[in-house]
User: Fold this.
Amino acid sequence: MGLVSGTCFAETGNNVTCIDIDKEKVAQMKNGIIPIYEPGLEELFKRNIEEGRISFSTNLEEGIKNAEIIFLALPTPSGDDGSANLSYIMNVAEQLGGLLEQYTVIVDKSTVPVGTSAKVEAAIAKKCKVDFDVVSNPEFLREGVAVDDFMKPDRVVIGTSSEKAKKVMEKLYSPFVRQGNPIYIMDEKSAELTKYAANAFLAMKISFMNEIANLAEIVGADVDKIRKGIGSDSRIGKQFLYAGTGYGGSCFPKDVKALAKTSEDYNFDFKILNAVMGVNKNQKTILIPKVKRYFQNNLKGKTIALWGLAFKPNTDDIREAPALDIIEELLKEGAIVNAFDPEAMENVRKVMGSKINLTEKSYQALDGADALIIVTEWNEFRLPDFEKMSKLLKNKVIFDGRNLFENEQMMELGFHYESIGRQPVTHS
Ligand SMILES: NC(=O)c1ccc[n+]([C@@H]2O[C@H](COP(=O)([O-])OP(=O)(O)OC[C@H]3O[C@@H](n4cnc5c(N)ncnc54)[C@H](O)[C@@H]3O)[C@@H](O)[C@H]2O)c1
Assistant:
């Protein structure tokens, strides 16, 4: 998030220094290499390096020299109790206090619980000798389309009670909202809670559709027809209605958990959130009982191919990816796993090591496999060569966690095909 934000701010003419404690990442970026996969980022990144508007450092003191605005884009991972771990933010805030030399706007851009900007302010104030403001400016970009989201945000949310900071932030964001999208200025707490409300709402929409899918399967209905049927209602909207193997990634799981924890801390029983989390936990491995049923509860020695490992397409991010839960379950059952993903293989190799076979090409994963499981809806899986698949697979069996294919088509092709929220198609 920090790199995308920094690059996009540089793109609008600002001088940006990206500071990270990860020496390897900083060294890579200094050499013009982006340490993540994010479509469209490279072009902007290279251009702004060439123009001398973006530089990199591992040194906080050096990096913030003369900065008018400092963005905290630090991690806020889940702690053991589900709360957002604020140690990264507070650690940097405490250092900043002794380093600021002139009026500076400090921006909480990480997703942080309500009340954090006040904590950051207090931490900086301990040692600070100059005037400063702390602003909450949650970020809504989505991985995979992060650059577009940042350059053309639906809205910008700024939480501040300072007129001075408000002016600084409005000026900074003015190039991004030229089409008239709003900048909402509000109090810090509302801004902080807006981000959690947005992510929790979207996670709820996903879990709701997954429950509709699970019911549809039982009663003999088709979730994709239901999706179209309700999505055309403008009050509901077409987006985020796709049933699947649950939400993952670095944001939804941790943010829903953190909001639940905040509620608990305030003795508020936020009932829906617990249901959203419960549904999602179940949904991540919803394909496993189907696979087991097909193989009469015996996956020992069976080779299962997996297409898609990233938590969603167009990213190499595998944090909380359903594919990892599915792999763990398959391995527990004694299956052999061949897996392919267009971008996430390196990250998977780091956590899975040699426990699974990562293949260089998608079709290699199918060679001699007893079944294919599709986990991530990368575009390249949407129109596969079914003839080639039939030849490579030992059995014509597909479990599709993203409903990429039509039941009728799979029936004609003679596949055993099970998906989410639709009726299974059995071998002809
Ligand atoms: N990833 C997204 O799509 C997204 C979208 C909106 C908001 N956010 C929020 O942004 C925040 C960051 O998320 P992310 O996905 O970019 O995390 P990330 O882990 O990819 O990046 C965080 C970076 O901070 C660095 N870091 C850690 N401690 C540091 C320190 N003391 N000084 C300097 N750098 C340090 C890490 O090395 C890492 O490179 C989180 O709060 C997240 O919820 C993320």
In short: The chain has a mean pLDDT of 97. DSSP finds 17 helices and 13 strands in the chain. Residues 368 and 394 are 5 Å apart (CA to CA). Residues 1-2, 19-22, 25, 73-76, 88, 91-92, 110-111, 139, 141, 143, 250-251 surround nicotinamide-adenine-dinucleotide (CB under 6 Å).
